[in-house]
Amino acid sequence: MINMFDKIDLYKKALDWAWKRNEIISNNIANADTPGYKAKDLNFEAFLQKSLNQEENLELVTTDERHIKESSSSQDNSIEVLDSSLQMRLDQNTVDIEQEMGKLLQNSLYFDGVSLQLSREINKWKTVIKEGR
């Protein structure tokens, strides 16, 4: 049986990814003149895997306070990757402002497309609830 919230949850995860990538690209643009700054991007596969793991709700169970605790903050860094495709300037900065602006536009179009699909899915369910009226 199809759960009506499965598609909506998938769209939510896609929008979360686009939002996080927008933050990273904006941070790259803000640091375009910072000496030594390395441009970053978001690894889609790692982000998706993290989302799927959260969905499975796998929590680390400890029976003693001396056991190692799960750290959620360290997982967030694993999905951000340094963009090694860019050349380093003399000040060791790897941000190419034109490439970052292109990524920002591409990400914005992706976000708008997913938002439109989510809106259509919600409208479809509204029509079903109203019995087609």
Present the secondary structure layout.
Layout: H1 4-30, E1 40-42, H2 44-56, H3 73-78, E2 80-82, H4 97-129
Antiparallel strand pairs: 1-2
Comma- or semicolon-separated keywords:
mainly alpha; two-stranded antiparallel sheet; 4 helices; 2 strands; flat
* Mean pLDDT level: 81
Hey, roughly how much beta strand do the residues contain?
A: under 5%
Distance separating the two termini: 25 Å
Number of helices: 4
The helix content, as a percent range, equals 55-70%
* Count of extended strands: 2
Largest sheet: 2 strands, antiparallel
**Structural class by SSE content:** mainly alpha
Radius of gyration: 20 Å
Order of the strands making up the biggest sheet: 1-2
Low-confidence stretches: none
| Shape annotation | flat
List the secondary-structure elements in sequence, H or E.
Answer: HEHHEH
Characterize the structure shown:
By secondary structure, the chain is mainly alpha-helical. The chain is built from 4 helices and 2 strands, in the order H-E-H-H-E-H. The protein has helices at 4-30, 44-56, 73-78, 97-129; strands at residues 40-42, 80-82. It has a two-stranded antiparallel ribbon. Helix 1 (4-30) runs antiparallel to helix 4. The longest helix has 33 residues, at 97-129. The chain is flat and about 65 Å long.
Brief summary:
Helix content is 59%, strand content 5%.
